[in-house]
Amino acid sequence: MSAPVATTDTLATTGTLATAGAGVPPSAGTFALDLITGRARTGAYGPDPASLRIALAFTTAQAVRHDGRARGYRNEVLSLRLGAAVGSCAVEPGELPADTLTDCVGATVDELLDHPRAAVRVAALDAYLGHCRPHGPAEGARPVPLPAGSSLAKSRARAAAVVGLLPLADVRRVLVVGVVNSLLEQLRSRGIGYVPCDLKGGATEWDEPVRTDALAHLDACDAVLASGMTLGNGSLDPLLAHARSTGKPLVLFAQTGSAVLPRLLGDGVTAVSAEPYPFFWLDGGPTVLHLYGGRAGRGGAAR
After folding, report:
1. Is 205 helix (H, G, I), strand (E, B) or coil?
2. What global pTM score does this model have?
3. Helix/strand/coil (H, E, C) string of 76-97?
């Protein structure tokens, strides 16, 4: 059976958007986001964020339903442009107030790093880091091309690259936080078990129940595979804490915060698949993933 298309960082399992970070209750704090923001403000990555302004803000909305599929999928992404870089954070469709884009344009990055909405803070930091430290070999990234094709074909190609970042010989069961069925399909094809988690629950393509309590399953899994949206909804911190304390692999697949999350390599995160805007589902032609860490390379971005 073929896998449904992967979406921004998420997959709907009940006919509506399933928050990719779901399965881990959002924490009161966002330590990881605050940590990297603090480094940016002290000049660790480049220019003072107060010296740079966002000129363009936009949202991207997607709806898809493949032939033969019973369910459709929707996505919405907030993106901010800084120079040649675009920073992004996926949100629930309809979540952003109409004036969010107006709030962002003309504001400095530093001002947006204090915005009350986490999605704006993530997108602003992502744009800043994409501008100052673009993906490439200098940052420890390995480009992996995704061939032209349908969204489903590209989803599967992405899934193969992402799952390949896991130390597969040492992994028996993976906690998947933010269910994308093409990733599950890859794990199944390699004989690796998994626990799919999402706060919205539902079922996978193979009618497996999607758990809503990811933290309760951490100890039963050998590795964690989580969406970048965990950064945007505050649910990344407990996953990082578990990885740091146990040494378990934590691999992130990120469209949300793709330039932010590589800064956590070696600090709980073992590998990142970074996919900046425009995402694979926006373009039927060839696109590129930027892989950090994992089996083929232990280096990562400077922190």
Report:
1. coil
2. 0.88
3. EEEEEEECCEEEEEEECCCCCC
